[in-house]
Design a protein that fits this description.
Layout: H1 3-26, H2 35-45, H3 52-63, H4 68-89, E1 99-100, E2 103-104, H5 106-109, H6 112-132, H7 139-153, H8 158-167, H9 175-185, H10 187-199, H11 206-233, H12 236-239, H13 245-248, H14 254-277, H15 286-297
Helix pairs in contact: 1-4, 2-6, 3-4, 3-10, 3-15, 4-6, 4-10, 7-10, 8-9, 10-11, 11-14, 11-15, 14-15
Length: 300
């Protein structure tokens, strides 16, 4: 293993471990009433996942010398939103999946009503975390960060993308329609992770913010393209979730729209664009470039 790769893996492991501890601390204790709900919240959030969104927040924070404590709170809020979205996406009224992160989904392990409440409670906790921790020196800047995550989670972001996804089952979407859906369903929260991470430190000039935003959009879309490829090619054991479900449910994907080979090439194009967007940051953008590589080249 090359030194740069070894350093990245060590950094990633350190952030992942830090996030596990932070989320465990922020989530209600399993024995606290109502115990079943709190147990399910912890089940849904802890001990699993790559923590890609927190990793992006921490890497963006490095560009602006953000304090680790601020990044920890911002990244936790983002990951709580992500965890809530997975719980709801897996429910019978949505994607009806039984496996997530290598274990039974929340509605299978507990029940549907509990799963619904878990998602609701995780979303509320995310905004509680954002509001009770100091994330920026300027209160107006922190309020803008809250607004960013709210918009990314709502009808013009993740929830809206999921609505389009449900409406599109059985239909053929062209590439602009697919991008419209996924830049919201997957990309909005990934972009928010980068924006919030960068918001925890010193202000960036407009041109640097624009480059960072372009990077976030590229990696957000690339993440979904690679997900579509993995759903078509990887095994359930490798993914930790049911493989092939998009094809089984006749959902429009980048693979169905352009084929596996072209989808892989598109992901590579997005990775190159993401790298180029960071040119103004020089070596300080290395961690974000490594994350773009990880997102596109991952096998799970």
């Amino acid at each position: 293993m090359k030194a740069a790769e070894s350093d990245f893996m060590a950094w990633m492991g350190s952030v992942q471990a830090r996030m596990e501890n932070a989320l465990s601390r922020l989530l209600p204790a399993a024995g606290l009433a109502p115990a079943r709900l709190h147990e399910a919240m912890r089940y849904a959030t802890l001990e699993g996942g790559k923590r890609v969104r927190p990793l992006l927040a921490f890497a963006a924070g490095e560009l602006v010398e953000a304090p680790a404590q601020r990044l920890e709170a911002a990244a936790s809020a983002i990951e709580l939103i992500h965890a809530y979205s997975l719980v709801h996406d897996d429910m019978p009224c949505m994607d009806d999946d039984v496996l997530r992160r290598g274990k039974p989904t929340v509605h299978v392990e507990f029940d549907e009503a509990t799963a619904l409440l878990v998602g609701d409670a995780l979303q509320s906790l995310a905004f509680q975390v954002l509001s009770e921790h100091r994330l920026a020196d300027d209160p107006a800047a922190q309020l803008e960060m809250v607004k960013t995550l709210a918009a990314a989670s709502g009808s013009r972001g993740m929830a809206g993308g999921q609505a389009v996804d449900l409406e599109s089952t059985g239909r053929t979407l062209d590439l602009p329609e697919l991008e419209f859906m996924h830049i919201r369903k997957t990309g909005a929260i990934i972009r928010a992770a980068v924006v919030l991470g960068a918001g925890c430190g010193r202000p960036l000039p407009e041109d640097r913010r624009a480059g960072l935003d372009r990077y976030a959009k590229c990696v957000g879309l690339a993440f979904q393209v690679v997900d579509d490829v993995l759903d078509a090619e990887a095994s359930t054991a490798t993914l930790g979730k049911t493989a092939g479900k998009d094809s089984k449910h006749n959902k429009p994907t980048y693979v169905s729209a352009m084929g596996v080979a072209r989808a892989k090439a598109f992901a590579e194009e997005l990775r190159a664009d993401a790298h180029a967007s960071l040119a103004a940051f020089g070596e300080r953008g290395a961690r974000l470039r490594q994350l773009a590589d990880f997102i596109v080249l991952r096998k799970f």
